Amino acid sequence: MYQWRKFEFFEEKYGGKTSIPDELTGGVNCCSSGRGKIVVGCDDGTVALLDRGFKYNYGFQAHTSSVLFLQHLKQRNFLVTVGEDEEISSKLPVVCLKVFDLDKPLDPEGPSTSSLDCIQILRIFTKQFREAKITSFLILEEAPPILLIAIGLDNGCIYCIQGDIAREHIKRFTLQVETASNTNSQLSITGLGFRVDGQSIELFAVTPSSVSLFNLATQPRGRQSLDHIGCGINNVAMSDRLELIVGRPEAVYFYEVDGRGPCWAFEGEKKFVGWFRGYLLCVIEDDRTGTNTFNVYDLKNRLIAHSIAVKEVSHMLFEWGNVVLIMTDKSVLCIGEKDMESKLDMLFKKNLYTVAINLVQSQQENVAATAEVLRKYADHLYSKQEYDEAMSQYIHTIGHLEPSYVIQKFLDAQRIYNLTKYLEKLHEKELASKDHTTLLLNCYTKLKDVEKLNVFIKSEDGELKFDVETAIKVCRAANYHEHAMYVAKKAGKHEWYLKILLEDLGSYEEALLYIASLEPGQAGVTVKEYGKTLIEHKPVQTIEILMKLCTEEDEAAKRDASRGTYVSMLPSPIDFLNIFVHHPHSLMDFLEKYTNKVKDSPAQLEIHNTLLELYLSRDLNFPSPLQVDVEENSDLRAEGSSENDAPNVKYVEEGKDLKRGEECERLQKGLQLLKDAWTTDQENPMYDADLAIILCEMNAFREGLLHLYEKMKLYKEVIACYMQAHDHKRLIACCKRLGDSGMGGDPSLWADLLKYFGELGEECSKEVKEVLTYIEKDNILPPIIVLQTLSRNPCLTLSVVKDYIARKLDQESKLIDEDRRATEKFQEETLAMRKEIHDLKTNASIFRLSKCTACTFTLDLPAIHFMCMHSFHQHCVGDNEKECPECAPEFRSVVEMKKRLEQNSSSQAQFFQEIKNSKDGFSVIAEYFGMGLISKSAVGSG
């Protein structure tokens, strides 16, 4: 005991001058606490309730003689007392148990010691339970209103009452602790303690010579002897861990269900033993001086939390968060625990940091409070320059103390080893930020500790407990490329891995192998980002990877395709065009390989457009950024070269020849693509026709233009190309092919061709004669137009058109003669018809037919004769006697035709459209005159 440190963690309350109120005139026999009050039982049978500060609240007469024991229940506001009452008949004292309901107040007009409402009175001793002196009393509140009352007697027995005491629904039973062989002084029950563990209820019983344990959940209720040494009155208590505490002169013992546990040797006779908030309380009498000392022991930390000399103590209570000691002279000592901050301040002033740490941990303070104590302890060690010990304490504060607080201290002290250790712990607990990762890696690189760097980067569990991008950047900046690549690969940061390979190490082949090992989707992303560099240095291998990505060559891609999930996910070559910005030849190679392999790509239109642009461009040698400097240097060398450098001229000429050959080859490919991508059975081409025309015009590619114009049926543009080139032979051949109306051509091309030769201003008699042949053949232009057109060319003579004019005049003469004969014929027919009409109107008609026209039988009356000279029986005509059955169909068809012609003649839009499309507009007008376009009614209305 003398080795334990003493502290004043408790303090006296109420100035240490508190006592039992004067209203209590009797001697204090028993006390209890709970529900914010202290209940005192006196030897005159009264019970008083005291408020905080030991102020008298009220009292009442509980028993007529004296109150022996009482207990204030916590779950229900009941007070259970055991006392002596005088029996009215015999006037002998009877020990009774009473239950009072404290929620029912006293009558305010009654005396101060009037009795409360007693809801139950039980006699403790009956015929079955013989009377003895009560030495201990304890109540267990099982489940209100069910109570379990244990009454210890001086004969070694324990009377138990269980059930609803208020309604007297109870059962009684006896527990025998000691046998009668012992002396009476050794049989008394000096202490009781209930131990509840789940559904199990056990009862500790202590006598001066034994410690026993009863299991109340079994039948019969078995007794287990825990020790053969006991203790006296007031030296029994229960800890918050359900251990029995027994105080003896030599030590304080703790008992569990399986026997004696730890013991603590404190000198002196134990007058009182108690347990309060994890502290052991003892009132000890000094054998030499006879004085009493009240000690509060912190067993976990092996310190005395409080020690004070006291008078003779009669009762020990716990209420209002304080320890209450009632003395035999009715004075009261109230001791309360100081707050944690005050206790820690006391320890900090004495630099007892380890004690402070143990204290906050033992009292289960929050983790933040413990971390604050550890921080102060670490600060103390740091001030003493004990950096290693300080860092070990700072590490325990991780998660509660701002890391910058610690980092700043050790940066200032230049303790890089300690700082590294702290940062490692931060990462282990996954509380490190990007800055912490940067700092830790910088520490490793400064120390050149590759082994620790390996351990940190290549952890065994495979988890990366740091910010990946920060680690990569730091390792890369420190030239630890291997570690940076490991982290990037482990974390799946493929872009960083490739950035290091390409930009730092220049390992282009390894980069290509790495890309080939990736999933198709991720490989496509990386190629888009780093494709320019790869094409610059490894064009062939890069194109191979692109082909695998854009087609189904890869085995993994084939497996995915077999599952039906990959076909629509294949990337398009158009997605990778930007990486070929300075390498058009490689782009052309890639697109050619792709089109040769994939014939039905969704991006076929864009691919063909791109290929056409590459094929038709005059110069594909776009300089890359790396080539610009080389070309500038070569220009400087050329300026400084001498006249003797004749071989260089030869090389330049050879280069030009190669360039021309390469350009011709590309143009041929372009023309072939224009043809293959727009076959005769296709309505639209597999490229943008307008874009193709623009490309051909920009690059003066006449063959492509001619093909496109012809496919788009722009025949006039086709011959315009030949006209512009003055290629008369091919011009005429083109008109022969495209101007044949029988083959769907445009005959008006010959008129344009004639106009061209008429405005040429050159000798072209041979060509004009050939053109006139086709114009005459299809009668495309009137002779007068032909003469007017050719008259503009001063180089042409009349001999060119002499034969043509002669033939035309001869044809016109023949046509005039034919028209004259037709006119005469029509005039004769008209005169004959008019004469016939006059005869019909003025002369009688004689019908000489003797047979019916319909049935060919002899004609008899009644008969019907028509002016068309047809005769019929009346019954053969039918109902319609106004029309000749023989001539009626022909007459109706003529009438319908006339109506139709009149309707057509009224359509102006059709009239003008036919004039526009006809070679001879006059004939169309004459035809409409014949159909009655200008009728008498129309003229008259006009």
Would you kindly provide a written description of the structure presented here, covering whatever features stand out?
With 942 residues, the protein is an alpha+beta fold. 44% of the residues lie in helices and 21% in strands. The chain contains 32 helices and 32 strands. The strands form eight sheets. The protein has a five-stranded mixed sheet, with no helix packed on it. Strands 2, 3, 28, 29 and 30 form a five-stranded antiparallel sheet that branches. Strands 4-5-6-7 form a four-stranded antiparallel sheet, with no helix packed on it. A hairpin with a 2-residue loop joins strand 16 and strand 17. Helix 20 packs antiparallel against helix 21 and helix 22 runs parallel beside helix 24. The radius of gyration is 64 Å and the shape is elongated. The N and C termini lie far apart (145 Å).
Topology:
Layout: E1 5-6, E2 10-12, E3 18-19, E4 28-34, E5 37-42, E6 46-51, E7 55-61, E8 66-72, E9 78-86, E10 93-101, E11 118-123, E12 134-143, E13 146-153, E14 157-164, E15 169-176, E16 191-197, E17 200-207, E18 210-215, E19 223-227, E20 236-238, E21 244-247, E22 252-256, E23 259-264, E24 269-276, E25 279-285, E26 292-298, E27 303-310, E28 313-319, E29 322-327, E30 331-337, H1 340-349, H2 353-362, H3 367-383, H4 387-396, H5 403-412, H6 416-428, H7 434-447, H8 450-457, H9 468-477, H10 481-490, H11 494-505, H12 508-517, H13 520-537, H14 539-550, H15 555-562, H16 584-597, H17 604-616, H18 625-639, H19 646-676, H20 689-698, H21 702-711, H22 715-725, H23 728-738, H24 748-758, H25 765-778, H26 783-790, H27 799-842, E31 863-865, E32 871-873, H28 874-877, H29 888-905, H30 908-917, H31 921-930, H32 936-941
Parallel strand pairs: 1-27
Antiparallel strand pairs: 2-30, 3-30, 4-5, 5-6, 6-7, 8-9, 9-10, 10-11, 12-13, 13-14, 14-15, 16-17, 17-18, 18-19, 20-21, 21-22, 22-23, 24-25, 25-26, 26-27, 28-29, 29-30, 31-32
Helix pairs in contact: 1-2, 2-3, 3-4, 4-6, 5-6, 6-7, 7-9, 9-10, 10-11, 11-12, 11-13, 12-13, 13-14, 14-16, 16-17, 17-19, 17-20, 19-21, 20-21, 21-22, 22-23, 22-24, 23-25, 24-25, 25-27, 30-31
